[in-house]
Amino acid sequence: MTTDLRSRAAEIKHTDADATAALLRELVAHLRKNRTQLREEWARRITESKLLMAMTREEIFAEATSVYDNYVEVLETGSVEALQAYARNLSERIIPRGVETHEVLGIVLLLRDVLARSLFKKYQADFGLLNAVLDAYEPAANRIANTVAVGFVQERERIIRQQQEAIRELSTPVLQVRDRLLILPIIGVIDSLRARQLTEQLLRGIRANRAKVVVVDITGVPSVDATVANHLVQTVDASRLMGANVIVTGLSSEIAQTLVTIGVDLSKINAVGDLQGGIEEAERLLGYSVTMPEPKPGEVKA
Amino acid sequence: MPISTSADIVTARQRGRALAAALGFSGSDLTLIATAISELARNIIEYATSGQIVLSPEAGNGRPGIVIVARDEGPGIPDVSRALSAGYSTGPGLGLGLPGVRRLMDDFEITSNAGRGTTVSVRKWLP
Amino acid sequence: MRVPILKQSQYVIASIQSALSDEELLQLRDDLARDVGKHRSRGVIIDVTVLDVMDSFAVRTLRAIAHMIRLRGAQTVIVGIQPEVAFAMVQLGLTLEDITTALDLEEGLACLNQQAAAGARHVQ
Prior knowledge:
The structure holds three protein chains of three kinds.
Chain A: H1 3-33, H2 35-48, H3 57-77, H4 81-94, H5 101-123, H6 127-171, E1 175-178, E2 181-187, H7 192-209, E3 213-220, H8 226-241, E4 245-249, H9 253-261, E5 270-272, H10 275-291
Parallel strand pairs in A: 2-3, 3-4, 4-5
Antiparallel strand pairs in A: 1-2
Helix pairs in contact in A: 1-3, 1-6, 2-3, 2-5, 3-4, 4-6, 5-6, 7-8
Chain B: E1 2-3, H1 6-22, H2 27-48, E2 51-58, E3 65-72, H3 80-85, H4 98-104, E4 107-113, E5 117-125
Antiparallel strand pairs in B: 1-2, 2-3, 3-5, 4-5
Chain C: E1 5-8, E2 11-15, H1 22-39, E3 43-47, H2 56-71, E4 75-79, H3 83-92, E5 100-102, H4 105-123
Helix pairs in contact in C: 1-2
């Protein structure tokens, strides 16, 4: 490419960028001028589409105003940071009220439509200019819709993660029933993430309580498949590495049979029918390993 | 960082742990990452005598994480899928240890050319 | 750095002080082999509390040490494996199955005493 061509290309690009900026400025002026009317139109379309039903008309109008102003600001400055912050803040407020992702996306798309219509109207006489205006407007509008929707979804995910965390902590208490004996009653479905948290919690519990024996009760686990069984084996192995014996209780004979049939190796698991039996077994282990009673005459030691 | 002696293994995993901690990883994730680095560095020394390990932050899909690349110009692995399946169980000969590394991390990629070397890239995302 | 090995009555205790290179771990193996014979020890405790990583080589070597010590007529107890390390080990498939493990030094000693008592009773 010759220098001449290259500089011409740069020039064209430069002029393009200038033209876009000029159009955006015109656009912003138009949206500012018609703020009241467009905002009202938007709020009307929101109500009409039965979006944000959890909010009152006044609330919708107030939020619509903020979003509108933020919208115009993004078009003017090209920076979405303020909008991002606002979207996060808005999401925080409306998620607890039960506003859904499709509603948030819906209202942003409605605003995009309302504004586009007003542009059609304004520039209908000059098709070429209308096209140029839309070329400048559309990418910016899409970016805004994206920012708001992503902000909402991220906030939602954050809240869900937080709740899952809280539920998990509640659902796997490590209980110390007596010196050096821990009980871990597991209730509910075990997936890989939960199995991991459970094991970590148990291992920390073993160190903190100097536990020698742990009874893991899985009576409350609805289904035990190969994956869950493998997690259990890992929990047993890891506990043993820290010097603690694990007794698993609540493994029904049906489940045990299924596991053996599908080829899960349960030989490492010390299983006892029910929790009561498990605790008795644990006490036997503890008594044997800690107090070491003198064998009575005639008693046979295993 | 270059890997050619067993002291390099220790250095590599310590640096990896420090980087992971700086990125916000905690608790057992730090240990999992350090252990994976240790195994990867060990593989380099055992099978290729020398190579390098590159540790860097990762920000794919807006999700922060750490990426570890282990590269060597050793003999390569003739049968990658077998290397990944062998040695699952414990035992004195743990094979390449690659299946273990794969379980420690979230993401695992390997390319190996017989006679030209092996590159393993693993990632762990912040929870 | 060489791992210090202390003799305490009929046991020897190796307490690892910092992350070990492979050579240092092999050195520990040789030192323990020598000391168990020299002191005619009944038990060995290896304290790994400070280790923040136990990879396949470390586990393989510890296992080899325990087997070697058993052949010399003594028991080995590995103590101080941290929760995170235990978790990473099982993820890697390293479970030290045939080796006694205990929470810490105190537990390790209790373990050896208990095995000694059981052995003594067995002899009676």
